[in-house]
Amino acid sequence: MAGYAQTLGTGGRLKLGVEADVANRYFLPSLVGNSFKSVSSGWAIMSVESFGQRWVYQIGNHTVFVDNAYDKSGWGQERLIVDGEVVQSSEGSMRFEQAYQESWLTAVGDSELKVRLYSGLMAIGCEVLLEGKPVDHDEYFQSSWVGPKSNWPEEALWAKAEYHKPETSVIRYIANSARRLFS
Fold this sequence. Notes:
Strands 1, 2, 3, 4, 5, 6, 11 and 12 form an eight-stranded antiparallel beta sheet that branches. A four-stranded antiparallel beta sheet has the order 7-8-9-10, with no helix packed on it. The chain starts with 11 loop residues before the first strand and ends with a helix. It is globular, with a radius of gyration of 21 Å. The chain is mostly beta strands. It contains one helix and twelve strands; from the N terminus they run ββββββββββββα. A hairpin with a 3-residue loop joins strand 4 and strand 5.
């Protein structure tokens, strides 16, 4: 069955035409250099390189993470984590904005935490509002990893980075990019 990839037990990098006689399972045609991972059904899942961003907010006694990830095929996934618990998440292809609303108890009573992730030019932006007022992030992290869709990186792979709010205008994007380049 030349041209078909098979699992090598725990998965690994396979190339077109690689054959192995493991439980007589054959998979979909492979592309040169793609990663595959074996799953219980016997079919292979292609792993892709994903890029992620994490905004960290300290709101009162709570730590809030807003995570975003995407790959080159247009797949995106997001999640809202409060005190280590995923409270909302979403995923899908070719989406340009995602918004979450979460009930929030403040010193003056019930309120709402609003989170909006949006596509800018060459970047993703994050906006958080509490009681209608913007909340600035305390830290910003980036990551890249290889794995199947819907996968998130290990905590150790998140690296602190400098955040540049994405521009929504081409002219401002070019001007700000040039300013950062020559400063």
